[in-house]
Each structure stands twice: as structure tokens, then as C-alpha cells.
Amino acid sequence: MAALFAVIAGLxxxxxxxxxxxxVKKDPGLNILIxxxxxxxxxxxxxxxxPKAGTPxxxxxxxxxVRFENATCQVPLTGPSHCSLFTGAYPxxxxxxxxxxxxxPPEVQTLAEAxxxxxxxxxxxxxxxxxxxxxxxxxxxxxxxxxxxxGQPFKSLNAERRAGEVYAPFARWLDEHKAxxxxxxxxxxxxxxxxxPPSPYKDEVRLKPLRxxxxxxG
Length: 218
Fold this sequence. Notes:
The chain is an alpha/beta fold.
């Protein structure tokens, strides 16, 4: 199973090229899964030399693939940074400069649109309102799961959900489409402040009080 691992200044991006499972009669070729983790520091991951990281899965991806040592994002904000990632364009080109207000213009093609045009099944499962489909990143995806609070008619600007709530619908989708030639994106927001890890991880870390300037939404 080939893998490509990249770090982009505060946004961890994991590319996984997945071969079809054994027993699947249809050979769809290589599938592509992109996993992004918000506000994750490279110098706190084991694969980047931090011995206390406790990140065995990310470390395994890095060891089995390609680890980039010098990669930076174009803007330190979730929405605009993902727009650059999925369009290959600078913010002055795709014109998304802030979270929650700017919308990706329809004339700027996304990676998902290109993948869809190439015949792939496409899907995304995201964890934060900053990448809600209303801001344009949903274009090209057959499925764009941004249901942060099931049953609620409105989403708040700070709407988000834990990794488990993002992964569960993705796992169901993957099981249904494992024979397809697909392009999928999974976005986890959990490392973002205010950091509130679930047990048993909460018991293993000591969280420091946030300074006022650290509370800005990234």
C-alpha cells in the first residue's frame, strides 16, 4: 500500500494511495484518500523527531511513504488554506482570504472537479464549519458530509465535530464504494483550540491555559 505524507505549516496533510482490497473483481486502479488535520505541529509528531509524540499511525504512514521536510501553507487559516490545497492556487487567485465569509469562485477549478471529470467517485467528510460546503469546496464531490449537528436546521460559525463523528460516515461510505475508483477527503479538526482530547488521551497530557492571542480562531 503506497502512501505519501506531507506537512503544510500547521495543517497536516496525508495522501494515501489505496489499492483495491483482495477479492474485489473490478480493478479500479489506485484510489486516492487525502486526510487533513487542522493546526497540527510537525515538531510534535514522532516522524519529525519528537520522541514523546505518541503518533504511531502517522509515523507509520511517513515511514512507508514520502515525508516532506520543507512544505508551507499559503495562509494560516483553515478555509483559505484548504482552498489553496485543492486548487493549487495562491489566495490572490482563488480569492478566499478568510474563514466564514469568502466563497471560492465557480471559475476556479477544484481537484475534486478534476477527479470527477476523470471518472472517479468522489466524497468528503469534514469536521469544521470553516470548510462547510457553502464556501465552495464541495464542488466536484458526489458526497460532501458537513453535518456537524444532526437534526439542527442551522450551523453556528464555530460548528465542529470530533474525529469519530467524521470517521464513522466515511467508513460506511468506504465500505459501500471499495470497488469504485475513488477520490476522498477526510478532515479532522480535533487538534484545534480549545483542545479537548477524549480519554484516555486527556489523562496523558497537561494542558496549559491559553493566552488571549492564542484564542484567535485559525
